[in-house]
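quick one before i forget lol
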Amino acid sequence: MSFFSMLFIAVGLGMDAFTVAIGAGVTVRKVSFRPLFRLAFHFGFFQFAMPIVGWIAGRTVAPFIARYDHWVAFGLLAFVGGKMIIDSLKDGPETFRKDPTRGVTLVMLSVATSIDALAVGLSLAFLDVNILYPSVIIGVVAMLMTTVGMIFGDLLSRFAGRKVGIAGGLILIGIGIKILAEHLLA
C-alpha cells in the first residue's frame, strides 16, 4: 500500500478526532500545552493502537466488532456531547466545565474516535499488509489533526463565548449519529 493511500486513509480516520478536538477546544477553559498535549497524544495513540488491535484480531472477531462498533461509538459520543450541552447551559459566569482532556472522558473520546481505526486494522489484516507503518501514519496524522482542531475550537470559543459549547456537544452527538447511520444504512 502506497504512502499516499495510507495518508488518505489516515486523514479520513482523523476527521472524527479533528471534529471532537474542536469541541474539546471550545470546552476547555484555556487551551494550553498540557490539555492540548493530553488530547493530541491520546487521540494519536489510540488511532495508532487500534489498527494494530484490529489487525491482531483478524478474521475471528470481525463479525462481532462490525455488529456493535457503531453503537459503542454512538453511545460514547452522545454521552459526552450531552454532558457538554448540559455544562454549557448551567447558570453563572464561573460555572466549571469538566475538562474533556482528563480522566474517563478522555478515554471515552479516545475510544469513540478510534473505533473506525480498529476496522481499518481488520481490513489491512485481510489484505495481508504489514500493520506497523500504516499505524504510525494514522497515529501521527490523528495527533496533528487533533492539535489543529483543538486550537481552532479555542479560537472559536473566544469569539462566540460559552454558547459554542452547546454547538460542540451537538457536533459530538451529530458525529455519533453519522457513524450509526453509516453502519445501519450500509
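fyi The chain is about 85% helix and 0% strand.
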